[in-house]
Amino acid sequence: MMAARLRWWRRRRLLLLRRHEAAAQLLGVLWLANVALEGVAGGEPPLKCDELRMGQYICEDPKIDNNTQEPLNCTNHTAYVPCLPAPNITCKDHSGNENNFTGKEVGFYRPIECRNVNGYSYKVAVALSLFLGWLGADRFYLGYPALGLLKFCTVGFCGIGSLIDFILISMQIVGPSDGSSYIIDYYGARLTKLSITNGTFRKTQTYP
Question: Given CA atoms 55, 57, 58, 63 in this order, what sign does their dihedral have?
């Protein structure tokens, strides 16, 4: 009696083990099928070209307008330069098409900052201030006729006003009256004004 019961428990245990093994194999097959389906579907969507990391693309130098010394097609202080993804990089270009690039095709256009100019030359303004500042020619040229007339009548405020204007214009602190920027060589010495906004990163000050 005991031997029959023992054989029955052994058969039951073997049957349960076989069922567990079959269930595990079924789960494994389902997992592999799911992975295969993801691979066929492409997995994650392809990366956009403008999301590439530094070193995965190179941008061309902007084409400069000889008259304004600013990038061509500058609109609202923004111009665009073509960027070429590196060879064997696959991404979606600016038209939304997925391509495998060879290093010669344009993948996207990167915005760059440009300035609004209106015909006022920095070199001319400095020269007028240096040689004819006592007559107010620099202020007339920049669009300040009242100050120009006052300097003309007072001989440049007895020379003091001419010296101050020459320093202010040379440092690009005084500019055209219409708010535009000077025409300066694109790769020349330009003054960049820094401002602090809510989006400006501020480094935490540490004190000893």
Answer: negative
Rounded CA gap, 189 and 71, in Å? Answer: 16
- Picking from 56, 75, 57, the residue whose alpha carbon sits closest to that of residue 65 is 75
Q: How do residues 117-171 score in pLDDT, each as one tens digit?
A: 999 999 999 999 999 999 999 999 999 999 999 999 999 999 999 999 999 999 9
Q: Record the pTM.
A: 0.66
3-state secondary structure of 108: strand
- In sequence order, what are the beta bridge partners of 12? none
Say which DSSP state 135 is in. G
Locate 59 and state its tokens.
Answer: 């941008």
Could you give the CA distance from residue 12 to residue 49 in angstroms, rounded to a whole number? 61
Determine which helix (DSSP H) or strand (DSSP E) holds 150, and give its type and residue range: helix 145-153
